[in-house]
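Blinded run. Sample ID left blank on purpose so nobody reads anything into the name before looking at the predicted structure. Input follows.
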Amino acid sequence: MLKIFFKLDEAGTNIRTEVLAGFTTFVTMAYIIFVQPAVLANAGMDFGAVMVATCIASAIATILMGVLANYPIALAPAMGHNFFFVYTVCIAMGIPWQKALGANFISGCAFILFSLFAIREKIINAVPNALKDGIAVGIGLLIALIGFEWAGLVVPHSGTFIGLGDLKSKPVLLSIFGILLISILLTRRVKGSILWGILVTAILGYFLGLVKFYGIVSPPPSLKPTLFKLDILGAFDIGLVTVIFVFFFLDLFDTVGTLIGVGQQAGFMKYGRMPRANKALLSDAIGTVEGTLLGTSTITSYIESAAGVAAGGRTGLANLVTAGLFILSIFFYPLVKMIGGGYLPTGGTAVLYPVTAPALIIVGSMMLTNATKIDWRDYTESIPAFLTLIIMPVTFSITEGISFGFISYSILKLVSRKAREVHWIIYLFSALFVLRYIFL
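Blinded prediction complete.
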């Protein structure tokens, strides 16, 4: 039955290979189970509820992708989106997480509608590659910066805003160990390098007295603190229009980029197009909507699925395995709490996360590869890309980076007599961003 439904013979695979691929994908992306609740807890959300919401939402979306599109592409809360949710929307803008979830829900609904028509392709094609690449790099820098702060490697400094932390302190040394370990594992091409790096760092942290042991297995924590707690009506506030746009914008490009990347590796692309792309995008959009209902940020396709493809995965059957492991993970809450929990140094004011910080730094570094795609010799392309990628980390805001990128791109193309190279959608959003700075 499984062979017929997922067309295993047609895809040139078998049940054993698909099971192995699903397991491989899970191990590669399982770090999000520890990182997501640690990140969203900074917005005041319940750690345990977010962990359960993350696992269930990831499982549902991953199953949808496998059943509807028959692709071995797993989904989970997006790195970068979660930091935009917490640090830009909730902390910098002072918006309650309930409203932020509501805005995320609206963007997901818009994504569903756009997935049923051809509108998404127009938006994707309208945004120049320089800005797409700049956004990816900027988010990577922001994630890395937060990782350095969580590690204690970067601390507030009165003269220069930030400075180097105490390299002799236990949390910093543990984080440095984690960075080196994950780097070595990646260099050796060990599957699940980030996950294994987190686990080994946590064990060392326990012996150093930085990590508390709560156990390994227990009944799942309650989902009630976040379940259906989103404020959809409150999200229609005019001040959240930009936030909704950025949620939608990031999800759109993350999803398409992942589908293309994994699709090319697996040989799914046919004449430059990906069969069943609409169903894949729809699965992703539904994932975001159901994720916000449960209590977690944007769900999107994971590039780590490439590890499962490399292991031979070619159908949605691999996704059922990955989803099953996500569901099983909710019974390991004590382990997640031990690894994702923070540490407050004696006399310190900032909570550190020396176990999960290395993962953020490494993930951030991986996102910088897009910088090589930017044409640095064309200043009408490179300067907007640079402003996009640098504004994000220095302002702790993905929104501001996108705004500066769009506005500068439009202006430079206009004054250089290259106005026709810019799609009218870019001019429209640039004008809206300018109005936002004037009136909001």
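Unblinding after everyone has recorded impressions. The mean pLDDT is 87.
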